[in-house]
Specification:
This protein is of the alpha+beta class. It contains 7 helices and 7 strands; from the N terminus they run αααβαββαββααββ. The chain has helices at 2-12, 15-61, 70-99, 112-126, 148-164, 211-216, 223-233, and strands at 108-111, 132-136, 143-146, 171-179, 182-189, 238-243, 247-255. The strands form 2 sheets. It has a 5-stranded mixed β-sheet. It has a two-stranded antiparallel sheet with strand order 1-3. Strand 4 and strand 5 (182-189) form a beta hairpin. Helix 1 crosses helix 2 (15-61), helix 3 runs parallel beside helix 7 (223-233) and helix 5 (148-164) packs antiparallel against helix 7 (223-233). The termini are far apart. The structure holds adenosine-5'-diphosphate. Adenosine-5'-diphosphate binds next to helix 5 and helix 7. It is found in: Cell membrane.
Length: 265
């Protein structure tokens, strides 16, 4: 841009200053627009569960509390909405922390194979659905420097989605490969998939392919946006591949230098 600046200046003198100013305004306007859009989204996301809760509480106060079948049902709805609000506020706090200047990673050298196994175990022991887990991890230790809490959150967000969108009896495959100074970690499911035209957007804040369905599943629309920021903070990239009706694979990379020793773990 600076090179352009001086060339244009020689030829047109005064006008070029205007061009630069216009450019700055557009950048600033874009930031302002994004901020306004974000605030509008947040307000909408907060209002939806709150208005739902208000109407259920009103019905309860108006006498539904006396009905032994309706009352527990209405209370459960308000409880679920409260849980979702808490998740939403936690996710928002997480994002705002990442946006702040003093955001730092607390990194350690950890064998990713052991770490990945531990996370998968946690899901395997607690999952309520009938879903089969398959692990295709490296057969030797792979030490990477990373922030364990952040990587846990990245994987929890990705694996929770895989479970959420998996059909009964579906399989989730956990993979890990070495590729050109990177570790590639992926989670594949056999779920509904994502239409090709939407796949680039799933890492955006509040983006959901099917708003009604994902709300019902308790999503905040922020899980993958958080994962993306955290992966990038580690110097990696995140992406998704999907075929509608067949399944989805979400992968991310981490910088990695393979070592000679293979008997570390
Ligand atoms: P949410 O909390 O809604 O799941 P995410 O940011 O985690 O938000 O995901 C954004 C959207 O991407 C989801 O609403 C869903 O439409 C889509 N998505 C993410 N993972 C999957 C998956 N494994 N299968 C199908 N759709 C997915």
């Amino acid at each position: 841009l600076r090179a352009n600046f001086s060339v244009i200046q020689k030829e047109t003198g005064f006008v070029n200053g205007l061009i630069t100013v216009l450019h700055d305004i557009t950048e600033q306007e874009k930031i302002d627009m994004e901020r306004r859009e974000f605030v509008a989204n947040v307000s909408h996301e907060l209002r939806t569960p709150l208005t739902t809760m208000r109407s259920y509480l009103e019905a309860l106060a108006d006498g539904a509390w006396r009905d032994e079948t309706i009352a527990p049902n209405f209370l459960e709805v308000t409880q679920n909405e409260t849980e979702r609000l808490i998740r939403l506020v936690n996710d928002l706090l997480q994002l705002s922390k990442m946006d702040s200047k003093d955001y730092r990673l607390t990194t350690e050298w950890i064998n990713f194979v052991d770490f990945y196994n531990r996370i998968i175990d946690r899901f395997e022991f607690t999952k309520e659905q009938n879903v089969v887990f398959e692990r295709q991890l490296l057969d030797h230790a792979a030490f990477v420097e990373f922030d364990e809490d952040k990587l846990t959150q990245i994987l929890v967000n990705i694996i929770s989605n895989a479970l959420k969108y998996s059909p009964e009896g579906g399989k989730i495959t956990f993979r890990m490969i070495e590729k050109e100074q990177h570790l590639i970690i992926s989670v594949s499911d056999e779920g509904v998939g994502i239409p090709k035209e939407n796949i680039g957007q799933i890492f955006e804040r509040f983006y959901r392919v099917d708003k009604a369905r994902t709300r019902k599943l308790g999503g905040t629309g922020l899980g993958l946006a958080i994962a993306k920021e955290m992966v990038e903070a580690h110097g990696g990239e995140i992406w998704a591949e999907s075929e509608e009706g067949k399944g989805t694979t979400v992968s991310f990379s981490l910088p990695y230098v393979p070592t000679e020793e293979e008997d570390w773990s």
